[in-house]
């Protein structure tokens, strides 16, 4: 198994235990993370912004978060790994279910992610966050 594939699978495991420090340890210092499509209006994030996005928005909201990998495509020449998968979690507004495709651009040695592009199911993503906003409004 290639180093870049090992790195990506270890990163997925870090997500499955929802360990922010471990997740971020796989990001190169110059890593840029994107949640796509662009219609979601989530700007690209450096490591500081991405860690804050996880820490302040997702980790407190999504309990028992789990990723299931359906398929992996690897290009060792271009230093890229793509994963098609699904994620699930429990939340205060009901189950969270999302399908995604992530393209990981890897450092030349395969040990770190230098660019993270996650394409989410925008309908599911939007519906979930609308429920979250609705709950927040009723609690205000």
Automatic annotation (TrEMBL):
Domain of life (superkingdom): Eukaryota
Protein name: SnoaL-like domain-containing protein
Species of origin: Echria macrotheca
